[in-house]
UniProtKB/TrEMBL annotation:
It comes from the Bacteria. SUPFAM superfamilies: C-terminal effector domain of the bipartite response regulators, CheY-like. The keyword Transcription applies. PANTHER family: TRANSCRIPTIONAL REGULATORY PROTEIN NARL-RELATED, TWO-COMPONENT RESPONSE REGULATOR. Residues 156-221 form the HTH luxR-type domain. This is Response regulator transcription factor.
Length: 224
């Protein structure tokens, strides 16, 4: 789901700290192309509110009472969830293991709470549009730190991956944390061609976004 043309992006904010929650609501509601349709202080309330309001994006804290942001994300955006809701995780902890688990649970990306307001707003718009929000440098650090947890004990091999050699090459570069422009430069192709390859890869592997593509590549032993 994404903001339809002519109407604001509908957002639910979930954070157990009142000052943070109020600040997020104020920043988001001040934008002409966004509106906050609900705010809450725990994961269970976020799940109930999101299922009721069907927002375009849920801005979700990680550590909360009753139900944490990871489980709430899994219930809203996890595999097998019909009509999943897009979740943007906002956390105090850079590369905290909970953030990794939230991405596995189905989050479309994450930001740090000390990020400037314009980055938060860009993140909401990015996730609402259907794209993933995972900075290339953060990707490198994330998979570097957690590769042992997502890499299989044995390599699956290219033959069992339904991609062409060129698509495999692009997938490996995505997993290495390269942006579209960096992939284009590395392969000497246009950014539009890279976007086409990325779309094909996601479609063939039935993945939602680049975040899932990175995890897929490491799980299948396609990168080291």
């Amino acid at each position: 789901m994404s903001g339809a043309p002519g109407r604001p992006v509908r957002v639910v904010v979930c954070d157990d700290q009142m000052l943070v929650r109020t600040g997020l609501v104020t920043i988001i509601d001040a934008q002409p192309d966004m509106e906050v349709v609900g705010a809450c202080a725990d994961g269970r309330a976020a799940v109930d509110l999101a299922r009721k309001e069907r927002p375009d994006v849920v801005v979700m804290d990680v550590r909360m009472p009753v139900l944490d942001g990871i489980e709430a994300t899994r219930l809203l955006a996890g595999s097998g969830v019909p009509d999943p809701v897009k979740v943007l995780v906002v956390t105090t902890f850079n590369l905290d293991e909970y953030v990794y688990e939230a991405l596995r649970a189905g989050a479309s990306g994450f930001l740090l709470k000390d990020a400037p307001p314009d980055r938060l707003l860009h993140g909401i718009r990015t996730v609402a549009s259907g794209a993933a929000l995972l900075d290339p440098e953060v990707t490198r650090q994330l998979v570097g730190r957690y590769a042992s947890r997502i890499r299989p004990s044995e390599d699956v091999g290219d033959r069992e991956v339904p991609l062409t050699p060129r698509e495999l090459e692009v997938l490996r570069l995505i997993a290495d944390g390269l942006s579209n422009s960096e992939i284009a430069a590395a392969l000497v192709i246009s950014q539009e061609t890279v976007k086409t390859f990325v779309s094909r890869i996601l479609s063939k592997l039935q993945l939602r976004d680049r975040v899932q593509a990175v995890v897929y590549a490491y799980r299948r032993g396609l990168v080291s």
